[in-house]
Amino acid sequence: MVNRFACALLLGLAGASPSFAQAEDIPFADGTIRIEENADYEKVITYDGDEIGRDYMVFFDRIANVGGTDVALISVGPGGNACGANTLMVWKDDNGDLKTDKLPGDCGWPAPAVSDYRIVFVPWVGPGEELPVRSWTPEDGFSMAGTLAFAPEPDTAWADLAANPAVHPLDYFQNEAFLAQATATLGDELEEYATGLRVASEMQEIGDGLFAGTGCVPHNCGGADSVLVVDLNRNAAWFAQMRGTAVAHWPDLADWPAAARAAAKGLGAF
């Protein structure tokens, strides 16, 4: 019985063809948008057989009416940790020609906010960043709608962190007192350092009031990893980041207390 089952299984596998994800068809503008996985695990987007986009993470969002024009919104991106998809807009102009548009880059833009007359893209901003808010219409394409800068929760102090220690390293920067100290310590390096915490594990409690954590830049783990050590009893923090083959420290390594240095060493900062 076992041998017959094994033979049947092997024959079945030998004759099996690769199995890809089932295609998704979306009726749109008197035609069909299709999303279908190929042999390389890419999701290919076509309209009536003509390719209009592809990537490894693709899913249909919705059809919105923007100023009287139906626009199909499709999320497209490479996937991966802390990497949001971009939105591909698909529509037909007044001549009936199919058009597509999207923001540059392949990571970081959130889902759009859709109104009756425009689509607005509000970026996720991290510590030290100031990024553009973009507006889009089928007639005019993209235009500036403003800028968005990172800001902490007002009137938050070290005592708030001690009462409810943050889980993700970047959550600490939402505290006004912590951000003030981080900005004073890191200066112009704040944005680059904080980007190294985008993909991060939970902060670990490694002593009385002492927390430590590590993270990395999306798509570059192992290349620009950041380390954060926080002492909630002393209202103090220490920062380190890989810079090529070296490790940068803020403040200088000589000013790190033994407990903070031991914590960072355990996380690979030395």
Quickly give the structural class. alpha+beta
Stretches where pLDDT is under 50 for at least 5 consecutive residues are 1-19
- Spatial separation of the terminal alpha carbons: 59 Å
What is the makeup of the main sheet? 6 strands, antiparallel
Order of helices and strands: HEEEEEEEEEEEEHHHEEEEEEH
Q: Using only CA atoms, what is the Rg?
A: 25 Å
For this structure, the CATH topology of the largest domain is Inhibitor of vertebrate lysozyme, Ivy
Count of domain modules: 2
**Which of globular, elongated, flat, extended, rod-shaped describes the shape?**
elongated
Number of helices: 5
Overall CATH class of the largest domain: Alpha Beta
Q: What is the second-level CATH architecture of the largest domain?
A: 3-Layer(aba) Sandwich
- Helical content stands at 10-25%
How much beta, percentage-wise? 35-45%
Residue-averaged pLDDT:
88
For the secondary structure, the number of strands is: 18
| CATH homologous superfamily label of the largest domain | Inhibitor of vertebrate lysozyme
Description:
There is one protein chain. This protein is an alpha+beta fold. The protein has 2 domains: 21-114; 158-266, Inhibitor of vertebrate lysozyme (Inhibitor of vertebrate lysozyme, Ivy), CATH 3.40.1420.10. It has 5 helices and 18 strands. The chain has helices at 2-15, 158-163, 176-186, 190-195, 258-266, and strands at 24-28, 31-37, 43-47, 50-55, 57-66, 69-77, 86-92, 98-101, 113-114, 119-121, 130-137, 141-149, 199-200, 204-207, 210-216, 226-231, 236-243, 246-250. Strands 13, 14, 15, 16, 17 and 18 form a 6-stranded antiparallel β-sheet that branches. It has a 4-stranded antiparallel β-sheet with strand order 1-2-3-4, with no helix packed on it. The relative contact order is 0.08. Residues 1-19 have low confidence and may be disordered.
